[in-house]
Amino acid sequence: MPELTANGITIHYDDHGPADADPILLIMGYGAQMTLWPMELVEALVGHGFRVIRHDNRDIGLSHKFDGVKAPGIVRHSLMRRIGLRPKVPYTLADMADDSAGVLEGLGIDRAHVVGGSMGGMIAQHVAARHPDKVRSLTSVFSTTGNPKLPPAKREAMDVLIKRPASFDEDVLVEHGIKVSRTIGSPGFPTPEDRLRERTRALVRRSVYPQGPVRQMAAIIADGERTKMLGQITAPTLVLHGEDDPLIPVAHGHATAAAIPGARIETIPGWGHDVPLELVERLAGAIARHARAA
């Protein structure tokens, strides 16, 4: 897999479609490797006439790891934020946005359509705010403004996301990954068991790095609310959100769309916090129409 230096660190990426086609940059979420953007979605977007780039965020997959750098724990960090204190974090979502912008620079791409899912949506929002000249359009997928007054995740969804597996034996990791996917996934579009198991095992064999998500979560908590920042975004924006998302409820999508001038939102019943194959064509079509309109 190719790699490049962006924002001073090594980033792994892949690149699909004609080099001269309009580029789409896909940014994945918390603790998630870039391959959780399914190839079926990538191929569908290429079929719509786009060049599609995925990349591993820092501290996950095959990109740079910040080994040995400590981050405050979730509980301590959250409590400190509530009383107005800002603990030191290894890096911020703005830093991660600069990584993504650096990927575009490294590939010689002046402007791209930027699509981010979950934490990747938060990063994409920062890219659009910090690097407006690089963003032709923004698509924020099952993401949020960070407003603490919005409905929280379901308890079981947050618990399974932050709980560590019992061991790092491959089979244990696969079962843990399957449980995570089942808990936060789409109730209306459940992934078949054989596909889910195959995909999860491929992720485990590609990379296991439990320290990375701890630092990524610290970056999310430290970022706080972005509503004011979102009001400064000028890129044409589409918000996509599942009506049955247990991790980031659909109210977060509506708040995101309301915060960004001119943004519009599409919600889908039965969709949770994943990218089921049954929705690939619909999601690719929505992203492609939005990009062409921009």
From TrEMBL:
MF-aspect GO terms: hydrolase activity
Gene3D superfamilies attached to this UniProt entry: alpha/beta hydrolase (3.40.50.1820)
Residue stretches making up the AB hydrolase-1 domain: 23-277
UniProt keyword DNA repair present: no
Keywords noted in UniProt: Hydrolase
Record keyword NAD present: no
PANTHER family: AB HYDROLASE-1 DOMAIN-CONTAINING PROTEIN (PTHR43433:SF5), HYDROLASE, ALPHA/BETA FOLD FAMILY PROTEIN (PTHR43433)
Full protein name: Alpha/beta fold hydrolase
Species: Aurantiacibacter gilvus
Higher taxonomy: Bacteria, Pseudomonadati, Pseudomonadota, Alphaproteobacteria, Sphingomonadales
